Amino acid sequence: MQKSHENWLLKGDRNTDYFHRIVNGRRRRNTIFSLSCGDEMIEGTKNLLNHATKFYKDLFGPASGNLCKLKEDMSESNEKLTDIDNFILTRPFSETEIKNALFSMKPNKAPGPDNIPIEFFQHCWEIVKSEVMLLFEWFHDNKLDVQRLNYGIITLLPKVAG
To answer: Which PANTHER family match (predicted)?
Structure first.
């Protein structure tokens, strides 16, 4: 074995029997053939992939169930929004409102799912302002597919008149 190793070092990575044994040994050693989950044994590539995917979706995905419940008698409440409150909640977003919210965020926090930090939007506000305003306009007019934005990071609730 030592002589083979010396030849391998001197002559390089030719397709020798030794080289193949090393690679195949590492492959066998680093391959997961089965997982034990409680009393169950999970085997097979497809089952292992499904189990790993489910595990990490459960770990990092949105919480299951409704964590915030309203009292059942809430719908019978006589409290209604005033016309002024309704106007405030359903009016389009203003540039000042969006800019104030954006600039109140800490610039050095972790970036969102697009991997762009808040600091970028703050420093480049004059450049990206029109696109950001258009995004909020589409959101307000229900022209934006919010499913992409809701994926485990943030939940946007569209304003609905009425």
So the answer is: REVERSE TRANSCRIPTASE DOMAIN-CONTAINING PROTEIN-RELATED
